[in-house]
Specification:
By secondary structure, this protein is of the alpha/beta class. About 25% of the residues lie in helices and about 25% in strands. Keywords: Hydrolase, Signal.
Length: about 475
């Protein structure tokens, strides 16, 4: 007992000593980017009641504060228009100077392996892309992988200027997004990559969501363990997202869903709850743009199509956007190597919806809008459908259901911007769906050359093991 007391006392002393000088979270470091034209929180640890001064060079302002009894401190500062480099000085018993700090756009990039996927993991035109990745105003931060059973206060990682050496191990999708946005806005871009291959949405979702939505706990039980990452709920949120929620960001990019095909029918629920919970934690209704998963040979024949439709339905959540990828993928590879167009499509959505640029450019493929029965046909209308056409002139990816809920392959004809779907086997059609199989690479496009999203007009999906 005495020995255990000595260990506890020693641990307390070490912890106290560790916090006896100003310490910053790892997200505050040289080369960092702060969100422009807003109020950001600077925070850290120090000796309890230590007096601290903070100096920001962009406005030559010096602010004074005192650490609390819990050794924590924080202060809000206003950031100017995009620019830099700047310095931030923290002075108390010790002094920390952050150099080469830029002000611009900060975007968090998260999800599973297709977000984590780097140039070194193999992408199209890899050597050319790496050799030309000199962008001093793009800054990269990779959050180290770890799990936790409760929310942590800090992440491991460091900022780096984008160079051929640093870009090649960073998220390729995030990099191509930033390259396009930086070119159009001509401002610094900071990317925070917090992703982990094979992760399901539940591990990125706060525990509070499951406490109020027990049905999501039940749905999570359908996900089987894998060799790459834990499936334990909230563990990656706790370790890799929660520590960042005090750090102001401009938006989120998300590429995930492949690991939720086992409980595909409830993906819309967990995904929308996750997005809303992140916005609540940040106290910021930031834009949240995500990538629709690509066609692939998943487990059940239709589970990939179900997830794609569930992602489409998530667009009803305000300030969201979805990049479709069925035309730049292969059913043989769950990791499409064309990351350039994925990043570009996300960037175009951000530029149009968030930054109010590209007024004449279409950034979405056709999206299902409504279905109406007209005799033995179903008339389907789409948004983002100007110039609607079938790439091979055969609309062969449509199905319709009868009154018994049984689905049949259907013929589709394009007329006056609408699709009319019918089948000789169905006299009283009820619902219609498109590109529903996991491996379906549809052939319906708009005039911008962007593919239509998978959809079903069914209001509520029933889980069928053979679907």
């Amino acid at each position: 007992m005495k020995f255990r007391f000595i260990i506890l006392l020693f641990s307390t002393i070490v912890t106290t000593v560790a916090k006896a000088e100003i310490t910053l979270p790892n997200i505050f470091a040289d080369e960092m980017v702060l969100q422009r034209e807003t109020e950001v929180l600077l925070y850290g640890w120090a000796r309890p009641n230590e007096e601290i001064t903070v100096f920001t060079s962009w406005d030559n302002a010096t602010m004074e504060l005192k650490a609390g009894n819990n050794a924590k401190w924080e202060i809000k500062v206003a950031t100017p228009k995009a620019g830099g480099p700047y310095e931030i000085r923290f002075k108390g018993d010790n002094e920390i100077v952050l150099k080469n700090v830029m002000i611009g756009e900060v975007w968090l990039c998260s999800g599973q392996s297709n977000m984590e996927w780097s140039a070194n993991s193999k992408i199209d035109n890899r050597d050319f892309e790496v050799e030309n990745a000199n962008y001093p105003n793009i800054r990269l931060f990779t959050v180290a992988k770890r799990t936790a059973n409760y929310p942590l206060e800090d992440v491991a990682g460091s900022w780096a200027v984008c160079t051929p050496e640093t870009m090649q191990d960073f998220s390729a999708v995030a990099y191509f997004f930033a390259r396009k946005v930086q070119k159009e806005l001509n401002i610094p871009i900071g990317l925070i990559d917090s992703s982990w291959g094979a992760s399901c949405a539940e591990v990125w979702t706060p525990a509070s969501v499951f406490e109020t939505h027990p049905e999501l706990v039940t749905a999570h039980e359908l996900i089987e363990p894998n060799q790459w990452v834990t499936i334990e709920k909230s563990t990656l949120y706790n370790a890799m997202i929660a520590p960042l929620t005090n750090f102001k960001i401009g938006g989120v990019l998300w590429y995930q869903g492949e690991s939720n095909t086992a409980n595909a029918e409830t993906y819309h629920q967990i995904f929308t709850k996750m997005i809303s919970s992140w916005r609540e934690k940040w106290n910021n209704d930031f834009p949240f743009y995500f990538v629709q998963i690509a066609p692939f040979k998943y487990g059940r024949p239709n589970e990939g199509g179900i997830v794609r439709d569930q992602q489409r339905r998530t667009l009803t959540l305000k300030n969201t956007g979805m990049a479709m990828t069925s035309d730049i993928s292969t059913v043989e590879d769950i990791h499409p190597q064309n990351k350039q167009d994925v990043g570009l499509r996300l960037a175009n959505i951000a530029l149009k919806q968030h930054f109010n640029l590209l007024p004449d450019q279409e950034v979405y493929g056709p999206l299902f809008e409504s279905a109406m029965q007209e005799g033995n046909e179903i008339k389907v209308s789409f948004s983002h459908a100007q110039g609607l056409y079938s790439k091979d002139k055969k609309n062969s990816f449509f199905e319709i259901s009868n009154t018994d809920g049984k689905w049949f392959t259907a013929k589709a004809k394009l007329k006056n911007g609408f699709i009319f779907v019918s089948s000789k086997e169905v006299q009283n059609p009820i619902d219609v769906r498109y590109a529903w199989k996991s491996t379906d690479i549809g052939n319906l496009y708009n005039g911008a050359g962007l593919p239509a999203s998978t959809f079903t007009s069914e209001r509520k999906l029933k889980r069928l093991e053979n679907e």
